[in-house]
Write a structure and sequence with these properties.
Layout (H helix, E strand, L loop, with lengths): L2 H16 L11 E9 L3 E7 L2 E6 L17 E10 L2 E5 L6 H13 L3 E9 L2 E6 L2 E6 L18 E10 L2 E5 L1 H16 L7 E10 L2 E5 L4 E5 L20 E10 L6 E5 L7 H6 L7 E10 L2 E7 L2 E6 L21 E10 L4 E5 L8 H7 L7 H11 L1
Parallel strand pairs: 3-5, 13-15, 18-20
Antiparallel strand pairs: 1-2, 1-4, 2-3, 4-5, 6-7, 6-9, 7-8, 9-10, 11-12, 11-14, 12-13, 14-15, 16-17, 16-19, 17-18, 19-20
Amino acid sequence: MSNDEEDFAAMFAASEKDKPKAKRPKIGDVVRGKVITVGKEAVFVDVGGKAEGQLDREQVTDKEGKLLVKIGDEIEARVVADAGGVLTLRTKLGRGPEARAELAQAQDLGIPVEGVVTEVVKGGVSVDVAGVRGFCPASQIDNRFVEDLSVFVGQRLTFRVTRYEGRNLVLSRRALLDEEKEKRAVETRKNLVPGAVIRGKVVGFKPFGAFVDLGGVEGMLHVSELGFQRVEKPEDVLRLGQELDVAILKVEPGEKGDRISLSLKALANDPWNDATASLHEGARVKGTVTRLQPFGAFVEIAPGVEGLVHISELGAGRRINHPKEVVGVGQQVEASVLAIDPEKRRLSLSMAGSKDASPEEIREAAPRAPQTLGTFGDLLKKKS
């Protein structure tokens, strides 16, 4: 062997030595491997780490006894025993005495189990786990409050065994959901920076906004950030389970985790620019009265764009104590533009019209139903 070949062999040996050795899976581990042999009673799986796993055929057959895997398929299972150099694997619990033994092991090792919710009972739901009747408290069926537990009846869910003594089997689904949520949260937090756009799902409502799950982490979409149009409550524009893209506004550390502020408005086109682009002082506009304040009335001239008619600009030379004396919410009115402030996004309007319009004429026209309000606008035009 030449010196070059000896050097290469030494380098290869050194590199192999530095490689971390695959660890043999231990009881309780979830492993993924490839089916290498299908026998009459068992299926053998190469799970790496110089280890071979064995699955009873009933673990990979359907109700009719049809085999669900073939040689070369990948399969995920949990290690429940290690004896004679072969790992015993399970994808589901057995039934009868075998299931009871595995349930005890599931409690000791924290192995998840599957069960079918059969009925709603006092304080929670009843669950059939491989023929064993279990109980899941209402507080443990989900990681959010569930008002109607009947929605889970008939569903096959995964649970953690929290207590198993004799016939007393207590389960928790919430524990698994919280674990999964935290795993997803680790990756999500890497992308939580102001300005980022992230996909989320609406998971809850409050009067002031909606909670959005961003992937194990929840953010608050305040009602003021739902869009440029005024929204009274989030349920008016969103629904539970809805998926949507949101922009990250702020991420603030808190005692119970980061407070994440979200926005839909930041992703929408600003209607202010389009609505005011062609406006100028003195221009006539039509709109709808949206709010009344002691100092004036707000008029929406385009979706999401409001102007203020100051109380002094509501009448034609008469004293008004409150805007409701002249206009009402929902009325369609016509006004003229007094001033436009693009920086402060303020639009000042006037409904006074010609100063020679009499108080009696305004009083007669203003309170009428929306279909007569055009007459009010016509009156102002006629007097101008």
